[in-house]
Specification:
The chain has 431 residues and is of the alpha+beta class. It contains eight helices and 34 strands.
Length: 431
């Protein structure tokens, strides 16, 4: 018992010395720990803030917009080096609950990292703009840039859809005027089909880059038909006969007379001309006849007109002229006698000049004179045995070298056939 009391007295009398010894040992341990595993700091940039409570806003028909990129923060962590070396940005929890948004549009950001002695950030609040959610449809247009290959033309453009739904904050959606895809032709010689990016534009044709606007789709399948081209003439025709005393001299004008068409190469190869199959009716007309036609009606399927500034209307003019008349006195020397039988002499026996009455186009009549007109009369046998009688007078029809649009009234001449006596031959022999 005495021994225990003695030991207790020793412990009590040296307590402060023992406490001091423990404290010194702790300090020494801390110094040793700091030397072997010192505390340091490390800064992590681009730490993304996790948002909570977004469903609350959605249920209220509202959307939010993070302002000033305040959902990306820079965080500094203080911890022993052995811990710092194992920490990544993904280990840092930065959370903002949108249900706690204040009237001035701020939301506190809460940072946690269990292994850190402390954690600080360059931003403690999230800046949020909350707006009414709006959805609307806008039209999708297309723009073509570049040129197709030589001898080709861009044909029909087909978009998978021509409208797109956009939604987001009302202020942002209200700016959207239309959507557009850009098609790069880039020397194409065959049909183009690809998914084209849909870009939003405002009313001033400025591109809208807003992450807060959600598009129904980011791409639209777009097809551009690339066609070959060919230049071909247009032909027209007439039906009927003009009024009495008038003539249609096969003079028809088509304007434009030549057009460029576009279509698949295999189809164009079979086309050399375009015929207007509805003839221009000149029946009973005494003047030029005008008619208009839509040339598209006469093009084969899959072929279209490719002519700048041409609306497809073709004008056809059929020219009608009044028949002119003219009389020419023709000498016997201007008529050639054909098929004079052997042993006979043929002579034209007329009391005066041979009168030829002509009718037809005035321009062509004016070009005919007694010096240019030539007639021919053909002698034919008066029976099947080709027997001719000396002193016989033949009545022969005269034909003239006239153009298609000039006619002559029938002209007949009398021709005297005289048998050769042979006296000239005997005389020549005596000589």
């Amino acid at each position: 018992m005495k021994i225990l009391k003695k030991i207790g007295a020793v412990l009590i009398n040296n307590l402060w010395l023992k406490i001091l010894a423990v404290a010194i040992a702790f300090v020494v341990w801390m110094i040793a720990a700091q030397i072997n595993n010192p505390v340091s700091t490390h800064t992590f940039s681009n730490v993304r803030v996790t948002l909570l409570g977004t469903d609350v806003l959605e249920n209220e028909g509202k959307v939010y917009q993070i302002l000033n990129s305040s959902d990306v923060v820079k965080v500094t962590v203080r911890a022993p080096e052995s811990v710092i070396s194992t920490i990544t940005a993904a280990d840092i929890s930065a959370v903002a609950d949108l249900s706690q948004i204040t009237e001035d549009g701020t939301v506190p950001i809460v940072y946690t990292l269990d292994r850190a002695e402390s954690i600080t950030s360059d931003r403690n609040e999230l800046q949020v703009l909350v707006e009414e959610k709006k959805t609307k449809y806008v039209n999708i247009y297309y723009e073509m840039v570049g040129s197709v290959g030589e001898g080709c033309v861009a044909g029909r453009v087909n978009l998978e859809r021509n409208r797109i739904e956009v939604s987001g904050p009302k202020s942002a959606v209200d700016r959207v005027s239309y959507a557009q895809v850009t098609i790069d032709l880039d020397g194409a010689v065959k049909t183009i089909s690809a998914d084209m990016e849909v870009i939003l534009y405002d009313a001033d044709d400025h591109k809208i880059d807003s992450e807060n606007i959600v598009k129904q789709t980011d791409y639209v399948t777009t097809t551009v038909t690339v066609l070959s081209t060919k230049t071909v003439p247009i032909y027209a025709s007439v039906t009927g006969e003009p009024a009495a005393g008038y003539i249609y001299p096969d003079d028809i004008e088509v304007y434009p007379g030549i057009i460029t068409i576009a279509g698949d190469t295999s189809v164009l190869n079979s086309i050399s001309r375009i015929d207007i199959t509805d003839p221009d009716d000149i029946g009973g007309k005494d003047g030029n006849v005008f008619a208009s036609y839509d040339i598209e009606k006469y093009l084969p399927a899959g072929v279209s007109v490719e002519e700048q500034g041409f609306d497809g209307e073709v004008t056809v003019i059929a020219y009608i002229e009044k028949i002119g008349e003219k009389s020419i006195n023709l000498s016997e020397s201007r008529i050639n006698l054909l098929n004079i039988p052997e042993g006979y002499t043929a002579d034209i026996i007329e009391d005066g000049p041979i009168v030829v009455k002509l009718s037809g186009l005035s321009a062509e009549l004016n070009a005919i004179s007694s010096e240019s007109l030539i007639g021919t009369a053909e002698i034919t046998a008066n029976n099947s045995e080709n027997i001719y009688i000396d002193g016989e007078v033949l009545i022969l029809a005269v034909k003239f070298n006239l153009s298609e649009h000039v006619n002559a009234e029938p002209v007949y001449i009398r021709v005297l056939l005289t048998a050769d006596t042979g006296e000239d031959a005997d005389t020549d022999g005596d000589t």
